[in-house]
Q: What sequence folds into this?
């Protein structure tokens, strides 16, 4: 590949570009360091739990840890695809995205070490649905961008990465964390980390929505690619949520004591369903816009 020209010497960075705005937002709001979070109370809380309760929280931790690692390892082809297409503002934003995911991976690994499960093999908690999304669909869709940055390839990558993994699974995971641990007054350190993570993920999802929307504007065929892939992935995404909730329910039934950890499986499942529909409706909104410039003006307004 050779460069035909450079944007910054023929004109400027497009300061009003939605992805440039998002880059500015990332620089402002993304300034947190997982190494600064104090996990000493988390360690004490973990040690004070009944052994059955300790086991019960590990599947969620295992899902988050491997999930953040997967998105850290798999994001680079998206950066390269946007760079290849000369999308300077998108590429600039994505530099912050890569850094965010590295910090998310660090956060969970540090927590595991702090509470004393750092050497445990938590991969036993990965269900077939989990493996389908994180071991197979995500890396395959992202790897395809190395050799193919067609609209179809970009839409599929953003659909599994930003809409399903981040928009449905991570969002539902934060919700479960808060539902269970905030109410019980446990784990202030990881809950603080989750708040930061949540803010970062908001930007990541905005990138995904914008990326899919701009390719779907005026293209029924591209909309179909998005919508069909969402439906195809839903079965596995919901399978992950079902597995995690059923595991927790089973553990609760078997426990010979009254746990202080309250958890409502139906509420968790409903939340995931709601997230799925919200993601779809965000892309549906594109039907309101006649052109890319109209869409970009609206997205910039939202950021
Ligand atoms: Fe993340
Ligand atoms: Fe993310």
A:
């Amino acid at each position: 590949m050779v460069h035909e020209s450079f944007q910054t010497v023929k004109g400027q960075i497009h300061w009003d570009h939605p992805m440039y705005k998002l880059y500015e937002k990332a620089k402002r709001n993304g300034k947190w360091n997982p190494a600064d979070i104090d996990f000493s109370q988390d360690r004490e809380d973990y040690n004070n739990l009944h052994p059955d309760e300790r086991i019960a929280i590990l599947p969620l931790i295992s899902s988050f840890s491997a999930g953040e690692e997967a998105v850290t390892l798999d994001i680079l082809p998206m950066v390269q695809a946007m760079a290849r297409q000369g999308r300077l503002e998108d590429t600039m934003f994505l530099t912050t995205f890569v850094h965010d995911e590295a910090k998310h991976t660090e956060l969970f690994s540090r927590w595991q070490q702090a509470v004393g499960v750092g050497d445990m093999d938590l991969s036993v908690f990965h269900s077939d649905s989990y493996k389908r999304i994180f071991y197979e669909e995500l890396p395959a869709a992202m790897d395809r961008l190395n050799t193919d940055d067609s609209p179809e390839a970009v839409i599929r990558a953003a659909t599994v990465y930003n809409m399903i993994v981040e928009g449905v699974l991570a969002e539902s995971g934060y919700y479960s964390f808060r539902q269970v641990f905030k109410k019980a007054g446990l784990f202030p350190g990881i809950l603080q980390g989750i708040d930061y993570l949540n803010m970062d993920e908001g930007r990541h999802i905005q990138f995904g929505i914008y990326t899919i929307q701009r390719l779907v504007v005026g293209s029924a065929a591209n909309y179909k690619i998005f919508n069909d892939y969402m439906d195809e992935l839903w079965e596995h995404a919901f399978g992950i949520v079902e597995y995690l909730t059923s595991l927790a329910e089973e553990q609760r039934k078997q426990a010979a004591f009254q746990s202080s950890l309250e958890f409502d499986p139906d509420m968790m499942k409903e939340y995931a369903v709601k997230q799925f529909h919200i993601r779809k409706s965000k892309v549906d909104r594109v039907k309101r816009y006649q052109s890319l410039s109209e869409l970009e003006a609206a997205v910039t307004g939202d950021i």
